[in-house]
Amino acid sequence: RRLRLLDVGSSGCLFDDLAEVEVTALDLCPTHPKTYRSDFLELEVGPSGSPPLVLGSGPVDAAVVKAEAGRGGGAEGGAGDLKRLPALGFDVAVLSCVLNYVPDAL
User: Fold this and answer.
1) In the chain, N or C: fewer CB atoms in 10 Å?
2) Which residues on neighbouring strands pair with residue 93, listed in sequence order?
């Protein structure tokens, strides 16, 4: 089985070329077509084994994404808006680029 990796704050699917890794990449402002748009702190966790919820990835959600784009949202720069992932869905989580944007400690 391939290692399931969650790349939070992905800056371009850096792990995509690894054959032994199944990557799910997300970012607040994706620049790569395989990266989902998502705020990790707002991401819902569904039941284990449930499918992810992605808006803008199919014809049913196209109108929602278009409406969001008109209000400054949408997923033009990525694979869609990721809203939910299943519990226990990943073996590894990488937050390598997130630390660059964490404010100073109080």
Assistant:
1) C
2) 6
